């Protein structure tokens, strides 16, 4: 059976504790726990969670390790993230967001999921990210909110 490889940023974890995003975020995590989808997380995400409250960190602990794929920021993804900034897809102050996009692109995940509508899940930015990807020989990256990738209830 084909399982989607879903890269998440920290907003998805935070969404589990936010009234507005909680239902969809928790349903997505339930799909990770059940192994319906593969959770792809990076060292960038883990670094961002270092100072988070235990309540936030514990959300990841619920997902069995067999259902998680760990990926890392490497030279290739750093170069790509810098290209996003140079091309104006995001500002330099959004370096972390650019790195999430770059890692997901380099790792060729099926979809990157985020609640960050300002810097990531935004049609103008998605087109800019993907124009850089195509220009540099990478595939188009699907970027969606959790609501768009969870199965119907």
How much β-strand is present in the residues?
5-15%
Mean pLDDT: 95
Number of domains: 1
Helix content: 40-55%
Radius of gyration from the alpha-carbon trace, in angstroms: 15 Å
**CATH level-two architecture:** 3-Layer(aba) Sandwich
What is the H/E order? EHHEHHEHHEHEH
CATH superfamily: 5'-nuclease
- Output the CATH topology: Rossmann fold
Keywords:
globular; 8 helices; Rossmann fold; 153 residues
Give your account of this protein's structure.
It is a single chain. It contains eight helices and five strands; from the N terminus they run βααβααβααβαβα. Helix 7 (123-135) links the parallel strand 4 (111-113) and strand 5 (143-144). A five-stranded parallel β-sheet has the order 3-2-1-4-5. Helix 5 (75-86) packs across helix 6. 38% of the residues are buried. The protein has one domain: 3-Layer(aba) Sandwich (Rossmann fold), CATH 3.40.50.1010. It is of the alpha/beta class.
Brief overview:
The protein is built from 8 helices and 5 strands. The protein is α/β, with parallel strands linked by helices. The chain has one domain (5-149): Rossmann fold (3-Layer(aba) Sandwich).
